[in-house]
Amino acid sequence: MRGLWFLALLGLVACGPIPVERAEQQCLGRAQLAAKPRGMVSAGVNSDGDTLAGLKLEVSSDYIMGRDPSAVFDLCVQQKSGQPPTRPLYSFPEWKG
C-alpha cells in the first residue's frame, strides 16, 4: 500500500509546473506550428535505380483553427509554468513567424 501512495505522489510531482524559461523554450515550437505548417520533401534514387520520394508534413490544430501564434505561446507558457511569459513571442531570436 505504501508503494502505491509513493507512485501516486510521484505522478503528481511530475505534472507540476516547470520554470517559465523552460516553458518558453518548449512553447516556441508550438507557436511556430500555429503560424504555418512545417514539412520536408525528399527524393532520390537507390543503387538499383529505383526512384524514391517522401513527404513529411506537420500541421497543428492551432494553425487549422487560425489561432494567433502569440496567443498560443502565451497560453502554452501559462499552462506549463503557471506564470505568464517573461517577454513577448516576437522578441525571441528563434522566432520565425
From TrEMBL:
PROSITE patterns for the chain: PROKAR_LIPOPROTEIN (PS51257)
Report the domain of life of the source organism: Bacteria
Please give the name of this protein: Lipoprotein
